[in-house]
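Fold it.
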Amino acid sequence: MKRSARIKHAHGFVNFVGLIDGTLFLLAFAPSQNSEDYFTRKGNYAIKGLFICYDTAKITWIEMGWPGSVHDNWVWSNSDVHLSKEKYFGNKEFILGDSVFSSSSVMVPAFIWTFERNKAK
């Protein structure tokens, strides 16, 4: 069974082929050059990693090496997967990300939490 058909059957998403998220790999100490670029909003030094995986948690793509201060969406926007979508995605296929990612023909943010939405509850 084709992956997107299996995922549709299991989870209800049509043409869905993966999940994306970023993480930080902490460094033991500040880099000797450009250390401010590696200083994160969480107050430590790190390298950014971005991962795409199937719904089964099998990792299919990794983007590593960006400074920890860089936003997940910036890494995604400059990745080969985003810039060369036609090499990685079939017709109407997409991945699901969290609300930090901008929507596009291949990226669907799971939800966008806004102050107005929060205030209504």
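The chain is about 25% helix and 30% strand.
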